[in-house]
Design a protein that fits this description.
With 316 residues, the chain is α+β, with helices and mostly antiparallel strands. Helix content is 14%, strand content 34%. The protein is globular and about 75 Å long.
Length: 316
């Protein structure tokens, strides 16, 4: 967090900061985009001068953001380094860099208007010359949703002229329909045929049917009980074919909170007795809010409260 041109300060886990500034001098407090998850607007608060010895609390309200994350892969489905950003017809975020495995995380304003597209640009045009023949899509159940897959030549600036391929996908959760619509646009930029795997996360096992252009096809199904992941693999089909996957009885599974927290703590480098105390709190017949309060009062290692809290509140 930059305070004028004088010094910088970093907030703690709760968002609090403290900084000594010159007296009798107006200044501004600025949160720059590079410190705020790819959001491309500077947040600035002007502060009137303080008298010598005066202390003043200045609260800064940042726009609420939502997290977009994923993995950039090459034609062999291997992770790759790339620049990634989110774009609408009117605005875009700052670009972020993937790690060596192609994974990225970027934050966008919750109220960002328009149809958003996630775009990526490889660090080397050679590295991503071909779009993949095998695609894996992750779908999270519980509500309707839609997504538009964007693909270009991965090399030139032709995307600025909308020379790309768009593939729309829709989920109608109440009836268990997931549709991969026909690819549209510069079809020569993508393989003529593709193999799709659609993973439904956080769901119970159920029967699945698959239709390609209105005709039923044989598709393989695999369910991972531990992860609550139902994977449906669709045979190779034309990119211009519409695919409809129907879940027989779409239903969310209950999270195994105790097992998930146990697995988390099993990998955590904290004292054994602290792990035991956390598990004892989880076993109590009290609300999740009360459990988090007691957990916070323990003052465990940094990050433990947030990690356990994320698992607890995921069911609410």
């Amino acid at each position: 967090m930059n305070v004028g041109q004088v010094v910088s300060s970093v907030t703690d886990d709760n968002g609090y900061y403290s900084q000594v500034v010159p007296a009798n001098t107006d200044f501004s407090i600025t949160v720059k985009p590079k410190n705020y998850g790819g959001y491309n607007k500077v947040v600035k608060v002007d502060v009137p001068a303080l008298t010598p010895g005066e202390q003043r609390q200045v609260d800064i309200v940042l726009p609420r953001l939502v997290r977009v994350y994923g993995k950039v892969i090459d034609g062999e489905s291997q992770g790759m380094r790339a620049s990634v950003w989110v774009e609408t017809s009117k605005t875009c975020t700052e670009s972020v860099q993937t790690n060596k495995d192609g994974q990225f995380s970027i934050y966008v304003p919750e109220g960002m208007k328009g149809d958003a597209v996630v775009k990526a640009r490889s660090q080397s045009g050679q590295e991503a010359a071909r779009n993949p023949e095998t695609m894996t899509i992750r779908v999270y159940g519980g509500a309707d949703g839609s997504f538009q897959l964007y693909e270009d030549d991965n090399e030139s600036n032709a995307y600025l002229k909308d020379e790309c391929v768009l593939t729309d996908m829709d989920l109608k959760w109440s009836i268990g329909h997931f549709v991969i619509h026909k690819a549209a646009g510069r079809l020569e930029l993508i393989p003529q045929k593709r193999t799709w795997t659609v993973e439904f996360w956080g769901v119970k096992d159920t029967e699945v049917t698959v239709e390609v252009e209105g005709t039923g096809v044989e598709a393989s199904k695999k369910y991972d009980e531990a992860l609550g992941c139902l994977a449906v693999s669709v045979p190779e089909t034309a990119a211009t074919s519409e695919i409809i996957i129907t879940l027989g009885a779409p239903e969310l599974r209950e999270n195994d909170v105790k097992t998930q927290v146990f697995n988390l703590l099993n990998q955590a480098e904290i004292p054994y007795m602290e792990k035991v105390a956390i598990m004892e709190i989880l076993d109590k017949k009290i609300s999740n809010a009360a459990k988090l309060t007691q957990l916070t009062a323990m003052h465990p290692e940094e990050g433990i409260v947030g990690a356990v809290g994320e698992i607890l509140t995921a069911i609410e």
